[in-house]
Fold this sequence. Notes:
Largest sheet of chain B: 7 strands, mixed
Low-confidence stretches of chain A: none
Radius of gyration of chain A: 25 Å
Largest interface: A-B, 54 and 67 residues
Helix content of chain A: 25-40%
Order of helices and strands of chain A: HEHEEHEEEEHHEEEHEEHEHEHEHEH
Mean pLDDT of chain A: 92
Distance between the termini of chain A: 40 Å
Number of helices of chain B: 9
Strand content of chain B: 15-25%
Shape of chain B: globular
Strand order of the largest sheet of chain B: 3-4-2-1-5-6-7
Largest sheet of chain A: 6 strands, antiparallel
Mean pLDDT of chain B: 96
Distance between the termini of chain B: 30 Å
Number of domains of chain B: 2
Number of helices of chain A: 11
CATH superfamily of the largest domain in chain B: Succinyl-CoA synthetase domains
CATH architecture of the largest domain in chain A: 3-Layer(aba) Sandwich
Oligomer: heterodimer
Strand content of chain A: 25-35%
Number of strands of chain B: 14
Number of domains of chain A: 3
CATH architecture of the largest domain in chain B: 3-Layer(aba) Sandwich
Number of strands of chain A: 16
Amino acid sequence: MRLFEYQAKQLFKQYALPVPKSVLVNDADEIRGAFASLKPPLALKSQVLAGGRGKAGGIALVNDPTEAEREARRIFSLAIGGERPNALLVEEVYPHEQEMYLSVTLDRGDRAFVTIAASAGGINVESMAGKVIRKISLDGIDADFAAEIASLLKLPSEQARQLVSILLSLERLAREKECELAEINPLAVGKDGVLMPLDAKVIIDDNALFRHPEFAKLHPEDEFEGEASRQGFAFVRLGGDIAVVGNGAGLVLSTLDLVGDAGGNPACFLDLGGGAQQERIEAALRLVNRLPGVDKILINIYGGITRTTDVAAGMNAVLAEGVVKPIYARVSGAEEEEARKLLAGTPVRMYKTAPEAVEAVVKGA
Amino acid sequence: MMLPKQGDPVIVQNMTGRYGRLHTRLMLDYGTNVAAGSAPGKGGQSVEGVPVFNTVAEAVEKTGARSSICFVPAEFTLAAGEEALNAGIKLLVIITERVPIRDELRLLQLAQSRGASIVGPNCPGLIVPSQRVKLGIMPAPSFSPGSVALYSRSGTLTYEIAGQLTGAGFGQSVAVGIGGDPINGTTPVEWMDFVQGMEDTKAVVAVGEIGGDAEERLARHIEKSGYSKPIVAYVAGRHAPKEKKMGHAGAIIYGDYGTADSKIRALTAAGVKVATTPVDVPVLLKQALG
Lengths: 365, 290
């Protein structure tokens, strides 16, 4: 789960990491109030999870309340990577001459957590020059370890001292809150030599959330994502017109590819998960049937242990409830012939292979 | 890594749970020698006629098992895995999904220090058709004995592609789902090196998906090591959006990191034939085997 910048910065404060003075506003009308407690110039930063908010116009520098209100209205009306900002972080601008990079992150390939540091920050970590990468123990790091990183970056002694303290706090935060990523980019060096994190990116390990109830209700959930998660489905909205439903993440991914290759636009990715019984099929069909923008439903089920007759019974149960969008289904596995018989005479179109079902759903035949 | 053979005793952890019971029966039906189960506080019970013990240590002592399949819920998987590895289990298959990353890393470190292998978590397990042995939840009819080694990061996609291979007359020497998490107990490179040494394996099918750089690493390894067996790959997620977790914890693209295009480019450059769809896998395999 990725935190919004303002949430990540609240977490930074808990771990004694410095952050610029700021106020969170949820409405452009509140923006004038920010000038009572903050000293301009101020940065208005849209709180979205999508990347590239700067390029998309989601950040503005303002000097007075009138300009701030105008810019706030503009930013609140943006859709950044399809996401409308619910809040603006209004922050004092921190004058600085240099930007560094610091993170604690999972290195999947090396199967270890690492710290990455660079004395010149940048958008792309991959191509960052002179970066230092060191594996870190699951039990944490000590001041000597952090000092070695600072010395590899060839920092002046006062900055090195600050970096050690920041890295120790960041690593402790990443470890205790079980982050996949805790990143400061940029870590600014002020004109007076004081280090200040300007942005904060924190991704919590979703699978560890049961140990961290404090993160349970941090995100406003969309109605469909909430419903899908209560049902135990893996669900992603995609914006097209063909709902794609299947059992198994890889199988559904591969079905999205077939739809995309055939020129179709998936409306969602829905993985029923293991043991796709009748009730789960019913719940999934009801959910995608009322998802805005859906015109057609594609089902791809490779039944191993799942009985295809259960799948057919689930479809029939939903069909009996009333109007259902056209269903194109490939259901392979045990009792296939019986499943076909159960669906004979219904609007469900059955296909032998996934490519056949996909071709039909895209053409709308 | 040591593959289980016909008759080798196998332990099922959390045998008395819903999935433990179901798959104990299905593994027995296939031919696996499920010799004992473990479940804290359930010692003395039996499932499908197989005795259940309170601890893995007891089950190991009574049966001599060196392999275990774990159906323990994610919250307790770290403890269950440690229990198994400390009891002398050398092949630990973890089916459980949603295991925290740091728990996986701790288990991996312990396994390495004990000279043991982990398959998974978040995986369907492994199957050796010629031995009629499976330590997994895969549907047996999709698989048949033969000389193609198959690995995949995904469950149902493993069955789908195994089914395509079986339908085209390509049986499998071994098939494994290595897991859909960011951390795999056994990596593609480790797996490919292992099957390279299997005499009954003539070709390899590698099934990847978006997220991470396992396929790019595999491609570099193939080039560097001069891998000797023909390889056909498939990578799912060419049309997946960025920054969205696509079902598997590990199936996520960050920026340009983890895209299907990058993986397909790397594998192709390493001489691997990459199929566009699962149904193309046997077609390319036929060409590769000439």
